[in-house]
TrEMBL record:
Membrane as UniProt keyword: yes
InterPro entries assigned: DUF975
Membrane-spanning intervals of the chain: 25-48, 74-92, 113-140, 192-221
Protein name (record): DUF975 family protein
């Protein structure tokens, strides 16, 4: 029977992995950190000026659209995935894994760029279609597909992933997360206090919150998948795993 870590243990392992390397982790996450601070600062400014009626609403809409344009979101998502890959390496090899700042941009000039784009484009399409039905199914499917990028990373170590259909990674994530979506949901929910702190500090607390949460997500995947996707196809994989019962 496989025993999986609860949120407390995941957070504990994440803190241990970051011990003595917080400076590296913060620099690695500098782009998401700046974006988080910027969004919180703009949100606070919009709330303040809207409340006291100092500016016209149309001005806020133009600023918001600049923050939410597709190009920024695209670049941000690729950087975030690259960071998550580096943090997974740190979880697995704490002494030797690199957290150099350029690791955040590792996917832009790599063999993995196009496959990652295709995977995440399909995830966006699938979750959007599910959300058209109801919001809740869209959220559930988002959790079901959440491990697709990590699975791609592991399989790419021994497989010609360019020969694989992008939907294969999404399907594998859906199967891997069967019975575990609730675990990840409660892990994310447990950070609500940190997000409140981030808002109260106009985003400054995200200097520490961003790398911490990202590392927790890497620990979650490593605990869930273990070495399943690091094995060659010729190696036997135990398919009869007990799962944590949830949605």
């Amino acid at each position: 029977m496989n025993m999986y870590k609860v949120s407390y243990d995941i957070k504990k392992e994440a803190k241990e992995a970051l011990r003595g390397r917080w400076k590296e982790a913060i620099i690695l996450n500098i782009v998401p950190i700046i974006l988080a601070i910027g969004i919180n600062a703009v949100a606070a400014f919009m709330f303040w000026t809207t409340t006291f009626g100092q500016y016209e609403p149309e001005w806020y809409i133009r600023i918001s659209s600049n923050f939410g344009n597709s190009l920024v979101e695209f670049i941000f998502s690729i950087i975030t995935i690259g960071i998550s890959f580096s943090l997974l390496d740190v979880i697995r090899n704490r002494d030797e894994a690199s957290m150099a700042p350029n690791q955040a941009f590792r996917l832009f000039n790599s063999y993995d760029f196009v496959p990652i784009i295709l995977i995440n484009l399909l995830i966006l399409i699938f979750t959007t279609l599910w959300t058209f039905l109801l919001v809740i199914p869209g959220i559930v499917k988002g959790y079901a597909y959440s491990q697709s990028n990590f699975i791609y990373k592991d399989l790419s170590t021994h497989t010609d992933v360019k020969e694989m259909n992008a939907t294969a990674f999404i399907d594998e994530s859906r199967q891997l997360m069967d019975g575990h979506k609730g675990r990840l949901f409660w892990l994310d929910f447990s950070f609500i206090g940190w997000h409140i702190l981030g808002g109260l500090t106009l985003g400054l607390a995200y200097i520490f919150i961003t790398p911490y949460i990202a590392t927790c997500h890497a620990v979650f995947y490593d605990d869930l998948a273990k070495d399943k996707y690091l094995k060659d196809a010729s190696e036997e994989v135990d398919e009869n795993e007990d799962v944590w019962e949830s949605f």
